[in-house]
Design the sequence.
């Protein structure tokens, strides 16, 4: 065989041996080129739905994106859907046929499951018997849990534009009882004394945090509420909820309320004022 042919055959044989060796090494997981650094899984912002009354959705002069719910989302890095309507509650409404239950169905229930649902309210329920409030709130929470069984649910009691009266505490106690019976985390702005004093008398922090209507928080008040809410959520490990993994239940209050009360006749109801937030007369 000519010398040139022998040289070509030798090259072919060497190449085949090299390929076979590479295949054999790859088979046993050896000899592979070093893999590059693994990409970290993308961190997704928690998706949180907040359902409430005018404290949550805002009023004229203070849009939803500046109400406490949106301010909380900014602080905690949430993707948020704000739902609800002024003058609504669990059991009672003022000048509207909507309720938290109907608003949940219309605004939230058709959406994909979120990481967490926070339901906040009760201020407009001050005229209702505790038993009715308990019934309506329990039914709503059952609806939410049935719709999204993997979603963390949180209940927040009523907020007030100053020191709460007996009727406000009655509503809070009814809602706290519902949260306890259903093992749902409960956030209590009244026990935490987020807003104190009387804005009309210039006492407590209400003097600088509550609007002239005596009820709704001003921009500074909404930021203050957001700070308090974010603090409570962090303490309860609810600030970064994850669908199907965050499972926080009800925790009994550490101690009884120490907040002073004022006459319920001095209390006003969110949404009872005109659409622009001006007072339309005090309500119990």
Sequence:
């Amino acid at each position: 065989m000519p010398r040139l042919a022998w040289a070509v055959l030798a090259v072919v044989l060497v190449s085949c041996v090299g390929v076979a060796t590479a295949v054999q090494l790859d088979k046993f997981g050896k000899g592979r080129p070093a893999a590059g650094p693994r990409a970290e899984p993308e961190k997704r912002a928690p998706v949180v739905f907040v359902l409430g009354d005018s404290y949550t959705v805002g009023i004229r002069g203070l849009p939803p994106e500046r109400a406490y719910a949106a301010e909380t989302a900014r602080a905690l890095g949430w993707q948020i859907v704000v739902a609800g309507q002024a003058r609504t509650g669990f059991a009672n409404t003022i000048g509207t046929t909507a309720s938290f239950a109907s608003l949940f169905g219309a605004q939230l229930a058709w959406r994909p499951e979120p990481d967490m649902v926070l339901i906040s309210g009760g201020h407009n329920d001050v005229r209702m018997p505790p038993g009715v409030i308990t019934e309506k709130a329990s039914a709503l929470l059952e609806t939410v849990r049935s719709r999204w069984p993997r979603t963390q649910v949180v209940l927040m009691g009523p907020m007030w534009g100053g020191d709460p009266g007996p009727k406000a505490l009655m509503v809070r106690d009814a809602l706290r009882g519902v949260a306890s019976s259903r093992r749902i985390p409960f956030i209590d702005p009244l026990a935490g004394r987020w807003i104190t004093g009387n804005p009309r008398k210039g006492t407590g922090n209400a003097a600088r945090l509550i609007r002239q209507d005596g009820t709704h928080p001003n921009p500074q008040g909404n930021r203050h509420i957001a700070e308090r809410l974010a603090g409570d959520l962090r303490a309860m490990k609810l600030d970064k909820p994850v669908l199907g993994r965050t499972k926080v239940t009800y925790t009994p209050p550490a101690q009884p309320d120490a907040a002073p009360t004022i006459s319920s006749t001095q209390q006003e109801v969110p949404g009872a004022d005109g659409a622009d937030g001006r007072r339309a007369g005090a309500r119990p």
User: Anything to note?
Assistant: The beta strands are 47-52, 79-84, 116-120, 152-156, 186-187.
